[in-house]
Design goal:
The chain has 170 residues and is mainly beta. It contains 2 helices and 11 strands; from the N terminus they run E-E-H-E-H-E-E-E-E-E-E-E-E. The longest helix is centred in the middle third of the chain and has 8 residues.
């Protein structure tokens, strides 16, 4: 399991201490043991859609509280309760969650959002725009094309926040 660390350039709000947030997406019915291991110690797990199987959310809830949204492959009856978007507060960070960033219909900076988490593209991405951190943890499920199998962890214990992209399968 390889990790790569990226650091946002801006200094987010300080506030109560929170440890790690695990970010996972596009599992498509497959929760790898390496993903479970990488998410150990998370205080919150965010699943950015395309879960594929309700047992994945059940297993993740054994590690930490989970906030999840519905992705385009989550069409079965079990996923009807999953929202299209969600907002989560994690210590000093207000996090907006959706599956496909192309469907973002709010101005995160104007709404006071610090982090936007999305999935869908299967490509791990970290960028900052207008003081908002945008993170796509990549896909933790079946390999697609030559894209990495990955997830991400956000460390909110100090500023600037640290983002680790964890490659599960080299």
């Amino acid at each position: 399991m390889k990790t790569r660390r990226d650091t946002p350039k801006s200094k987010p709000l300080s506030g109560q201490k929170t440890g790690f947030i695990g970010l996972i997406s596009d599992t498509h019915g497959l929760l790898r043991p390496e993903a479970v291991q990488a998410l150990q110690g998370s205080d919150l797990i965010i699943h950015a859609g395309d879960v594929g199987d309700p047992r994945i959310l059940e297993e993740l809830r054994l590690l930490a509280p989970v906030v999840a949204v519905r992705g385009n492959v989550d069409t079965s009856a079990w996923s009807a309760h999953l929202p299209q978007t969600a907002v989560a507060q994690a210590g000093p960070a207000l996090i907006y969650l959706l599956h496909d960033l192309n469907t973002l219909d709010i101005n995160p900076a104007a709404a006071g959002i610090h982090i936007v988490v999305s999935g869908h593209t299967h490509k791990p991405v970290r960028l900052e725009r207008d003081g908002v951190l945008y993170i796509n943890p990549g896909s933790a499920g079946p390999r697609r094309f030559n894209l990495p199998i990955s997830l991400a962890r956000v460390d909110l214990r100090a500023t600037p926040w640290m983002i680790d992209f964890v490659e599960l399968i080299p």
